[in-house]
Design a protein that fits this description.
Oligomer: single chain
Number of helices: 8
Distance between the termini: 18 Å
Strand order of the largest sheet: 2-3-4-1-5
Largest sheet: 5 strands, parallel
Radius of gyration: 17 Å
Shape: globular
Length: about 210
């Protein structure tokens, strides 16, 4: 099991809530990692899109309804992200839920207040729950570092852990090189050159897997 998957599994198995940012450039395996992790677990997976906030909230409601199957939720029209996230997480009870907001930068593009809403919900409701794990995933490094991880971000100091993925390691593109290793700071260590300036870059070979 890759170290990143082990990290996510460990936080899922802990009794408390967890908040995990996952970030890295496009096509480095973020969504594939998340898909593997949430398989077989109760989850709401929402993929941010470059569209208006109303359509995004409707898509989020539909993603939640596929799991929660609540008659009132079908008719719900969320006016903002606070209302949507608060309603959906309040309706859940049972085994730990994994709430994934993927490509978070696109949701925040039309709702710049979203990181502050996440901070408010974490501080006032989510962090004391035992049945919730929140994954915030983004492919714009500047956004993630500024709005989610940075000292001036609303969520600074609240994350349980973090994962930064670099370009895929050789084993994930079908060779027998040593496996990917990561540390708790999100840096990833690979043998060989770093010719691109990114952690885990390898020398000009195509990446076979999706991001």
């Amino acid at each position: 099991m890759p170290d990143e998957l082990k990290l996510l599994t460990r936080h899922y198995e802990l009794k408390g809530a967890a908040l995990i940012p996952i970030y890295g450039r496009r096509r480095v395996g973020k969504s594939r990692l998340i898909e593997e992790f949430i398989r077989g677990k109760p989850h709401i997976y929402f993929l941010g899109k470059r569209t208006n906030a109303e359509l995004q909230l409707a898509d989020f409601r539909d993603a939640a309804q596929r799991l929660i199957n609540n008659a009132a939720l079908v008719r719900a029209r969320f006016g903002n992200w606070r209302e949507g996230l608060e309603t959906v997480t309040a309706l859940w009870g049972g085994e730990k839920l994994v709430l994934v907001l993927d490509e978070l930068q696109w949701s925040a593009e039309t709702a710049p207040e979203l990181p502050s809403i996440l901070q408010l919900l974490w501080d006032t409701q989510w962090k004391t729950r035992t049945d919730l794990m929140v994954i915030l995933c983004g492919s714009q490094l500047g956004f993630m570092e500024r709005e989610i991880l940075g000292q001036k971000s609303p969520l600074f100091g609240r994350r349980s852990d973090q994962i930064r993925l670099g370009p895929l390691s050789l084993p994930r593109s079908g060779t027998n090189a040593p496996p990917l290793r990561g540390d708790r700071s999100g840096r990833h260590l690979f043998p060989g050159r770093r010719n691109s300036g990114l952690p885990g870059a390898f020398c000009g070979r195509p990446v076979a897997s999706p991001r």
